[in-house]
Amino acid sequence: MLSSARMTNLIDGRAVATKVYAELREQIGNSKAHGATPGLAVLLVGDDPASRAYVRAKDKMCRELGLYSVKLELPATTTQRELLARVEELNRDDSIHGILVQSPPPKHIDEAAIVRALDPAKDVDGFHPVNVAKLVLGDGSGFVPCTPLGCLRLLRETGVGLAGANVVVLGRSMIVGKPMALLLMRKGIDATVTVAHSRTKNLPQLCARADVLIAAIGQPQFVSSDFVREGAVVIDVGINRVDDPGSERGYRLVGDIDFEAVAPIARAITPVPGGVGPMTISMLMANTIKACRQLTRH
Ligand code: GUN
User: Fold this and answer.
1) Ligand 1 center from residue 102 Cα (angstroms)
2) What one-character-per-residue DSSP string does 221-282 give?
3) Which end of the chain, N or C, is more open, meaning fewer C-beta atoms within 10 Å of its C-beta?
């Protein structure tokens, strides 16, 4: 779905997310007809402003769609044991089908241990080892992390052929880079995937061979026009706050791509904000509905 406004090659994440929500409303109606309201619990430890904003947005979207939403905001002093007890309580709660612990937690929390404590059937982030394994194995009953799922949906809506295409994923995180690569190389999607990162040699030249470039390295405007082949499709996963004394909030959001430099040569490109960001929440809602269907077997 390319935007007709302003630029013809802009991939409009808000428009695609709206389309996803229309599909989800139908699925939610179906779940409710079977007596099940999908429920999501979001846990936030501490008061990081960006995390608070994300958690609020997730809660708001649940309510808009008519999902059951529980938002638990815990103090930064919450102990590992207290957090584990909350997770275990939610694992046992039949009205909750999806559980998300907002990342990153405070430093004294062992995040990997918290993720392992989640019931994999409720791990709508797709971070639990069971779900990571299912992604590697191509088992569709697992949960795939929301950001890569959103990127894939954007690529599909853009109409770019992925089978056999050279896709470069810039970044190797467990939240985006690794699952993105696994998803794209799945049978049926069939992309040829290269994962590049900060230690990759000749990074601009490598990226410039890509038909599709996905940037998820968390460095503001890192990708210049040297990294992009003319006619490539470019997906920007980065959401970076940079100081902007002239703006009301004192900062503005930029992606990992130097948008002004890259947009004129790309066949299609996601903006920041309004690209990948709105898709991530829509995929979280989709995963929650899937969890509800699988747990209630309808
Ligand atoms: N922090 C940034 N992105 C995410 C995400 O997708 N899930 C969780 N739990 N935390 C995040």
Assistant:
1) 5
2) T-B-GGG--TT-EEEE---EEEE-TTSSSSEEEE-SB-HHHHTTT-SEE--SSSSHHHHHHH
3) C
294, burial (CB in 10 Å: exposed 0-12, middle 13-18, buried 19+): middle
pLDDT value of position 3: 58
Tens-digit pLDDT profile for residues 240-253: 999 999 999 999 99
Give per-residue pLDDT as tens, 266-291. Answer: 999 999 999 999 999 999 999 999 99
What residue owns the CA closest to ligand 1's atom 2? 103
**How many A from CA of 249 to the centre of ligand 1?**
23
Tokens of 23: 């599909």
Q: For ligand 1, say whether the CB of 100 is within 6 Å of any of its atoms.
A: yes
